[in-house]
Every structure is written in structure tokens, then in C-alpha cells.
Design a protein that fits this description.
Elements: H1 7-15, H2 19-26, H3 28-31, E1 38-45, H4 54-60, E2 65-68, H5 70-75, H6 87-95, E3 99-102, H7 115-133, E4 139-141, H8 151-157, E5 159-163, E6 168-171, E7 175-181, E8 202-204, H9 214-226, E9 230-236, E10 238-239, E11 247-248, H10 250-262, E12 268-270, H11 273-277
The protein binds zinc ion (ZN).
Length: 295
Amino acid sequence: MAKSSRLPRASLVIKGLCLSFLLALNAPQALQAAGHATIVSLTFDDGLMQSAAIAPLLDTGLPATFYVNSDAIRRSGRINNGDFLTKRELDTLFYNGDDIGGHTIDHVDLATLSEVAQRKAICDDLKQLRQWYGNAVYSFAYPFASTGPATRDIVAGGCPGTYGPFHKPIGRYESARSVGASGDCPTCPAAEALPPPDPYFLYSNESVIATDSLAALQHHVTAAEAHGGGWVTMVFHKICDGCDLYSVNEDTLVRFLFWLKRRAVHGTYVRTIHQVIAGDYPGAPPHSREGRPRD
Ligand SMILES: [Zn+2]
């Protein structure tokens, strides 16, 4: 589940008198992505009813980022757990290049918790993920897109303690994604900037909901392409036929993935959140004198 959280990063940045943000308010589309391709990140939150994403991701070779609650994954498959991804499914994704990220140990609303409790919810999850995947765990998303005044700094500050038989430090996530603030509202930029101004408060599109058509999903991408590119992060939850407001139809998702794969000829590429943060994405496409590429 996710709700919009448009203000926190803006308030943080304004507090810091960040000139680039104030400029971006005046000319968001001109500044936010100059000189870049359009990069799309496919993010799947919660690990619930998402098994249907695995085959089309493998078929298309498109990488995605899965933000999971490791306690739900750990219990999955043993009892009736509401159809969370199993550890084996998560392994399949991980070993095929997908980005397995954290989302707190059990999907808590961080803004309602003490700093100690927030750190425990974040760090218990990261410790479990590190025990499974070592240092190759990079990305975090705030459950419900909910953050209190200290939440961002807790994530950015990292986790005390060690994991595994060799007592490696748990360390920290390299990014944290919110929900909203790019793509969907009249005053939002069409895409997040590349590189993003605050990796611990990444903008995304609003969560995909059950009534979103294939054309609506495609529009997020083509709108960014038409405004100079940038980083388009899509947020998916359950994959089903209208079982939840926060869901996407399986057929719509599959068709969107195959459409996205073909979009590379337009200078649009799919990368995980980690790949983008690491700078592993193509630069600007060659300038086209013909204007918009053909569909
Ligand atoms: Zn969630």
C-alpha cells in the first residue's frame, strides 16, 4: 500500500535552502533531466501477489527492484501467508539481476514510531536481507511512503551491529524511495532528476492502481520522453484482476513490459534503482533532427 508523500523531500530541501530545487520549481522540465535518456525503474512493493511478475521479467530480460518485508518472505511457503513471494522466488529474482531491497521487517508506519523502533524495523530487515544476499542489498522504500522528521536520517545513517559468521557490518542502504511527486500531478516534473538530488528521498510516480490502463502506464514513459527524459519510477503492488485498489492486471503488466523492452530504440531503458544510483545507465541518445521518434 502506498499513499502520496509529496511534501517531505521538498520541505527538507527548502529547509536546506537548496537553490537547485528552487530553480527546479520554476523550470522543472527544463532542468530535471537535461542530457539524459529516459530511464525507467520498475519497483514492486511488499512482495505480495507478485509471483506473476517473475516470468515476464525473465522473458523480457528487464530488471526490476523488489522492496520486500523480509519477515513475510521468511514465513512464506510454510503456512498460509497470503501469497507473499517465497524465499526461492526471491532467490530466482536476485540471481537474475533483480534488485532486492528492504521495506522494514514487517511493513510498519515509520512516522508513528520512536526513533529506536524505526531503527529496529529498518535494521532487522536489512540484517536479514544481508544474511541472504550479502552486500548486494542496496535499496530501501518507506512503507506507506510515511516518514517522520528523523526517518530519512535513520536510513541514511545506517545500522549498528554485524551479520553472519564473519561479523560483517550490517551497513546501510544507499537509497530510499518515497511515492509520488513526479509524473502524475499538474505541478510535478515528468520525471525524477538524474542523478537525483536526494538519494534518500527518491521521487516516483504515484502507485499504479487497478483502473490504470496499458495506455496510462505507457503515458508515464512517453510524457517523460517528451520532456527531456529523466528517471521514471513505476510503483506496483499486487498483480491481479482488480483484487485491490493498489494492483495491476497481469495482462496489462506483461504487455507494458514487452512494450518497454522495445522502447530502447527511442532512448528509453529499464534499470534497477541500484543501477541508477550507481550511475549504470546510458547517457543522452543522439540528437534527432526529426523530432519525436516514431512509435
Ligand atoms: Zn509497502
